[in-house]
């Protein structure tokens, strides 16, 4: 059974001069989120980029460094490349990651690890067989907000956690000007891919990674999905369910109500309710969103109030210097940095293959709307890592 105690791991400063050569495969919209934050992590050496649309690879390399690779085979044959960062469309994650592992490269993949659990399991087993590291986004668990929240929960500021209310409702996406969205390099947001993948596969990990880090793996769950705004999209657009409601039970007994969708007004909040108070973050997509503590307080008379005034907790790590100037700040480079440091030190990254596989498993169950309360298998290796708070790993504060 997974430990219910949050242990804090400090990886320590990187060894002077040690770097990991990384190539970015896929240079679309999300690639700018990575490129802009890479200067925070001097142990990552950008060797270059490859994209089937060569002009995107050229603009990425011109903006963030390295050279343009002619094809994937050239990337995989380069002995100076230790780490492949797979930012291809979701439909290509499995193929590109498998090719990289077979070529002896470590892989950090954008979410999800693969489109199906069997494919992802195959990748995890292949990495293990070959002694390679495999990890997957999202990496917001390394943000100032997440690190501070995890530390506060682990330090018992609200007593024993009992209940979590978590939301990833992005607003009614179909009514937004999504065709106008562009990245820093002018790459359009791939709305057709995103809508086909669905709100759960695109976004569930942003909450699940924090929750699993705090409370251990999900052991029981139920879910329901619905499609409400399917008729609002352009013709011939494949549309996945746009609402998912889940009930999760974690290894330490904490339970969670999780709402994910593209229908309700925006709400990206996370509130942890303990028997001695609450901790809350208003927006898990903002790396420096305040973490608010409300302690149980004595009251009298006929009132429903029992909590004291909110107090903002000091962040436990400093802010990253280099950030992506957009509507949200997702610290995406921190996951690559955590992987690179693990390569240097011969360790597993915090966002290990087992961690990533578990988050994918739960995400798939949520996206499929499995309505019956059922047990979620905890695989070998899960209990070793999932309940460990990273406390600074992957951040610029090493």
TrEMBL record:
One of its GO terms (molecular function) is oxidoreductase activity. Residues 22-135 form the Gfo/Idh/MocA-like oxidoreductase N-terminal domain. Residues 147-279 form the GFO/IDH/MocA-like oxidoreductase domain. The keyword Oxidoreductase applies. Keywords: Oxidoreductase. This is Predicted dehydrogenase. It comes from Streptomyces misionensis.
